[in-house]
What does this fold into?
Amino acid sequence: VQLVESGGGLVQNGGSLRLSCAASGLRYDDYAIGWFRQIPGKENDGRERVSCIEVKYGRTFYKDYLEGRFTTSSDNAKNTVYLQMNSLKPGDTAVYYCAWNISCSHTPGYWGKGTQVTVSS
It folds into this structure.
């Protein structure tokens, strides 16, 4: 499975961006794509999951404090998952990754290389 993220960039405080994750090499249509972000300087520089979508059924999950600003969706015909981010804040600045899972309850098996999102104040 290969994942390629796109759509990152520089945006002003309060702006919006839509990230895309194009997947290839899929063998089954029953899988999930999670969006994660890594914020520099945060404790352990750990990756935080911001959302996940089980594409076959359209089930979505969000980090609680992001729900309402971030929305994930999929275009199954294109094997592409999106992350729409609205009302962006400087604290959302991070590298955003998408990752392939069997389901949103599983640890990701494949990762993209990430796309940088920078929100200026």
Q: What stands out?
A: The radius of gyration is 13 Å.
